[in-house]
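STRUCTURE REQUEST FORM
Protein name: Bile acid:sodium symporter
Source organism: Dolichospermum heterosporum TAC447
Requested output: structure tokens
Priority: standard
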Amino acid sequence: MNEIIPILDKIAFLAFVVATMFGTGLKLTLQQIWQPLRNIRLVFLSLLTNFVLVPLFVYLLLQVIPVNEPVKDGFIIMALASGPPALPKLAQIVKGNLAFSTGLMMMLMFGTIFYMPIVLPLVLQGVEVNSWDIAKPLILMMLTPLGIGLLIKAKYQDIALNLQTITFKISNFGLLLGLGVRLIVHFNEILVLLKTGVIFICAIFIIFSFTVGYLLGGPGIDTQRVLGVGTAQRNFAAALLIGTSNFDNPNVISVIMVTSLLMMVSVLILGKNLTELDQEEGMGAEIKQLEV
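Status: completed
Returned output:
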């Protein structure tokens, strides 16, 4: 059983990321992805939020709240890793702007590839980060299926439409399987973090990241939601790669895994609440129209 669980985790992660990116490509065009990024103010605020405000806040928070060195390392790595592979899926969950989420993910992902090798060694001694080591898996798992999806959408729209339902189901399956497996694998670690109070830092991290992203994510509520969840959910793949290749202490990886898991669960709960809110507002608007 112990040998099967890591395999299931990898299958779930690959299914989720590849299907999500492929499915996103089937729904959009390059023009739609590029269009939101022409808003210079929104691009600037997105970069400021993810590469300055969140890392600075987490760094200062860890100066105020005393934690051991491995826990501190794990949080700093997560704070510096932007561009979550799950962002297009998260945008769907919170009813956000899918095109903006894809463009934002790519922008933050490429930013992380160059940003982390420069900044991380400055704040954590003895850490070596190679840009290509971060870029390679992200290109294979994310940009390649996205590009294939965009190509099919551009040349074979009927096929793209038929494939969307299948990729949506595979993406959801990977998400639910991955969450279930990781909850089982990291249940004891979550309990430990609860007992030590580290989970409190996770909560502050998530709340601040979402709030600052949401507040700076104009011009519309659909872009606010995307930048909110895109900032609250960090780039787990890049963080885990750096954590496993530079640190022997398992607590570093535990913090990365548990924080990422809690971020995903928080966004799922948020998405459910936002969906219910949208439905209530829609019903309220219909009632007003009937009254008129």
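Reviewer notes: The radius of gyration is 19 Å. The chain has a mean pLDDT of 84.
Form closed.
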